[in-house]
Amino acid sequence: MIKALLLTLYTLLSASNSWAAGKSLSSADYLNIAFEGTPPAARMIWLSGKTREAYTRIMGHAPSRLRQAYWRSNQRSVWILETLGKEQLITAAFTIDDGRIHEARVLAYRESRGWEIQQDFFTRQFSDAALTEETRLDKRIDGITGATLSVRAMKRLARLALYLHQAMEAGS
Amino acid sequence: MNKYLLTTLFGLGLTGSGHTLAATDDIEALRKQVSELSERLDATTQLFDNGSSSTPGKTTIGGYGELHYNKLNNQKDGGSDKKELDFHRFVLFFGHRFSDTVRFHSELELEHALSKDSQCSAKDTDSDGQLDSFNCPDKGPGEVELEQAYIEFDLNDRHRAKGGVFLVPVGIINETHEPPRFFGVERNPVEKNIIPATWWEAGAALSGQLEMGFSYDLAMHSGLNTTGYDIRGGRQKSAKAKADKLAATARIKWTGMPGLELAASVNRQGDLTQGAGAQEIAATLVETHAAYELGSFGLKALYAKWDMDDDGTAAGKDEQSGWYIEPSFRLTPQFGIFARHNIWDKQAGDGIDSEYKQTDVGFNFWPHDDVVIKVDYQNQTVPNGKDEYDGINLGIGYQF
Question: How far is CA A107 from CA A36, A50, A82, A123, in A?
Answer without folding.
Answer: 18, 28, 10, 11
